[in-house]
Amino acid sequence: EVYIGRTCDVKERMFMHRSDSKTKQYNVYKHIRLTGIENWRMEIIEQVDDYNVSVIKERHYINEIGTLNMK
Asked: Is the backbone of residue 43 left (phi > 0), alpha (psi -120 to 50) or beta?
């Protein structure tokens, strides 16, 4: 499964995913609990400097790939 997200701080976002996966009920966190955080991997697929462009790019990748965001 794939999850697409955007962030300004990759290390902080990974920390938040680890923390949130313990209690939150979003599909991505349910998947992390099911498969184990040790099997969760983050990759940078594109870097942009403009916030508005990052929102557009995130939506584009979510729609293109079909991700846990949509379930």
From this structure: beta
pTM for this predicted structure = 0.76
- Please name the residue ranges forming H helices in 7-50: 10-20, 27-35
Q: Which two tokens stand for residue 62?
A: 């979510």
| Token pair in block for residue 28 | 């991505």
48: tokens are: 């942009």
Q: Which residues contact 61 (CB under 8 A, 6 or more apart)?
A: 4, 45, 46, 67
Q: Give residue-wise pLDDT tens across range 8-46.
A: 999 999 999 999 999 999 988 999 999 999 998 889 999
CA atoms within 13 A on the CB side of 9: 6
Token couple for 53: 């462009």
